[in-house]
Design a protein that fits this description.
The complex is a heterodimer of chains A (about 150) and B (about 160).
Chain A: H1 2-10, E1 16-19, H2 22-31, E2 34-39, E3 47-52, E4 54-56, E5 59-64, H3 68-71, E6 77-86, E7 91-105, E8 124-139, H4 142-146
Antiparallel strand pairs in A: 1-8, 2-3, 2-6, 4-5, 5-8, 6-7, 7-8
Chain B: H1 2-19, E1 25-26, H2 29-37, E2 41-48, E3 51-58, E4 60-62, E5 67-72, H3 76-80, E6 85-93, E7 100-111, H4 118-124, E8 138-143, E9 146-152
Antiparallel strand pairs in B: 1-9, 2-3, 2-6, 4-5, 5-8, 6-7, 7-8, 7-9
Classes of the chains: A alpha+beta (about 150), B alpha+beta (about 160).
């Protein structure tokens, strides 16, 4: 993750919000394991929840139990977001993936192993096929870091 | 990175072995509000350009009347989210997966930049520092119609 965002730091001499290249967004997607899913719920606010995920090539894969998230996801346009924020340096990056979601019941033959952190039985496998990937990185100038005498 | 992941995985498996797998529990609303009051950035979710987008933002929380306020510049957030139902989320998790929590706020968004009612005036007085550059002259209020949260692993402190 550091190596991916490092070059943006070196290119920057002021607090700026830079666009991440799509290839860098994809590299970040492969390195993380928790993201946030946004699903539109008709007539009310979107649902935004963290999920454990893996990449299967370009496809985002996660598991889900039956519920509100699953009810509104199949064949819908959804968003998936990963980010990392550095509080001390007040910097960070985020990647937003938009794509079509497809939910299937896991019949035990799904080769993709998603390592979920909770023990809720998750019988459904959801795949998001990205159609648009964007990312931004926020970088503070080096002076703002050394000002207080910290390393 | 690989070594760190390996260590984390080994530790997590040991913990799972010792304590059993972790169960997702519903957080009481009071605890959700406490978490909202003690953090300063989260993720704004809204239907933008036909998609449910998620963007990280700094925010302020009005605990008394349950409002989230964010500041923004011109763009999709300002053009499309006011007068629609939006979401706001904060979360945190142990990198090894031993614990985690998330809080979701759902409700309507309003552009309160020029509003002269008492609530808007009060909300605009909330000190709110944004980390991203660029002018953010506009205030958006999210009225929390629903606050929900979930957690697993060690109980949250405070």
């Amino acid at each position: 993750v550091i190596s991916v965002t490092k070059k943006y730091v070196e290119e920057t001499r002021g607090a700026t919000l830079n666009e991440l290249a799509v290839t860098d967004c994809e590299a970040l997607l492969r390195r993380c394991s928790v993201g946030r899913l946004a699903v539109e719920v008709p007539g009310t606010s979107p649902l935004v929840v963290p999920v454990n995920y893996v990449m299967d090539g370009p496809i985002i894969v996660f598991r889900s139990a039956a519920g509100q998230k699953l009810a509104h996801i199949h064949n819908r346009m959804v968003s998936f977001e990963i980010d990392e924020i550095d509080h001390f340096h007040r910097s960070g990056w985020s990647v937003l993936v938009r794509g079509m979601a497809e939910a299937t019941v896991d019949l035990g033959n799904d080769g993709t192993a998603v390592d979920s952190w909770t023990n809720t039985p998750k019988m459904h496998v959801v795949r998001i096929n990205p159609s648009k990937i964007t990312g931004r990185v926020l970088v503070m100038p080096p002076a703002a870091i050394s000002e207080l005498g910290y390393l | 990175m690989a070594l760190r992941h390996f260590r984390g995985e080994a530790r997590r498996q040991t913990m799972t072995f010792m304590t059993g797998p972790t169960t997702l529990e519903v957080l009481p609303e009071k605890q959700c509000e406490h978490l909202l009051a003690t953090h300063n950035w989260g993720r704004f979710g809204a239907g933008l350009e036909g998609w449910p987008a998620i963007v990280p933002v700094n925010y302020g929380f009005d605990a008394e009347h349950k409002n989230i306020v964010i500041k923004t510049g011109p763009g999709a957030k300002l053009d499309e989210s006011p007068m629609t139902a939006v979401a706001f989320e904060i979360d945190d998790a142990d990198p090894d997966g031993a614990w985690g929590w998330s809080v979701l706020v759902q409700g309507p968004a309003f552009d309160i930049t020029d509003s002269i009612d008492d609530t808007s005036v009060r909300l605009r007085a909330i000190p709110l520092k944004t980390w991203a550059p660029g002018p953010k002259e506009h205030w958006i209020r999210i009225a929390a119609a629903r606050i929900s949260g979930r957690a697993f692993g060690q109980p949250l402190k405070g």
